[in-house]
Amino acid sequence: MKRYTKVIKIIWIILLITISQTLIAGELFEFAYVFLTSRKVPENHAKLMAKALEEESKIVPKSVDPLYILAFGLTETNFMNIFGDQGKAVGYFQLHENAVFYVANFYEDIRQFKQQHRNHAELINYPDWQVRIAYRYIYLTLRYVFDWDLARAISAYNGRSDKYNIYTVKFFSYYANIINEYVSFLHSKSLSARK
Questions:
Q1: Which of 28, 81, 132, 170 is 20 to 30 A from 4 via CA?
Q2: Mean pLDDT, rounded, for 24-37
């Protein structure tokens, strides 16, 4: 019975990942905005973040699901724009300065942002840039550091060296719930369109 349950869970996750890869322009913004405001993210931040998420989904290769970023926000801070790790980690995604520098090595716009905002703590005021940096950081580490091993990349995001741990479980649990919410969002939207 346990084996059957695991197989069902794996099939469900694969199905959810496949569905999430079919995000259509505009729907991602709308879903992300609703999702973020329901988590008590201030409306102005939610708009900026949803817009950045949609824009980044067109820049970052499709192999990195934009819904990963929402799962990271929940896993890291439950979408609170805070300082953590004795002030070294900033914002909704708990970005460390070395992560920002890493991304800036690959992207000119991030490099320019970092040059204009030398004090890492200023990032707290730019939720849209937090999304951009987190999204690209995940992509870069998946591609260049972890050879597309998502579990290792997730674990390392939290500073862990073990591949499977509570943080990874929490991330995938949130990710599955987010996909479920997204599917429900699409379903309600299609019902509204039919009326």
A1: 170
A2: 89
- pLDDT category at 193 given cuts 50, 70, 90 is low
Distance CA 46, CA 60 (A): 20
What is the amino acid identity at position 170? K
Q: How far is the C-alpha of 105 from the C-alpha of 145, rounded, in Å?
A: 14
Task: List C-alpha distances in Å: 49 to 18, 134, 137, 192.
Answer: 23, 11, 16, 25
13 pLDDT above the threshold of 80: no
pLDDT tens, 65-88? Answer: 999 999 999 999 999 999 999 989
Q: pTM to 2 decimals? A: 0.85
Please tell me the total count of domains within the chain. Answer: 1
Q: The domain spanning residue 27 has which CATH number?
A: 1.10.530
Q: Which of 94, 128, 87 minimizes the C-alpha distance to 109?
A: 128
Q: Bridge-partner residues for 95, per DSSP?
A: 90
Backbone angles phi, psi at 95, to 5 degrees: -80, 130
Q: Is-contact 40 81, C-beta < 8 A?
A: no
Cβ atoms of 79 and 39 within 8 Å: the answer is yes
Asked whether 36 and 30 are in contact (CB, 8 A), the reply is no
CA distance 4 to 112: 51
Residue 158: pLDDT over 70 = yes
- Domain of 38? 2-194
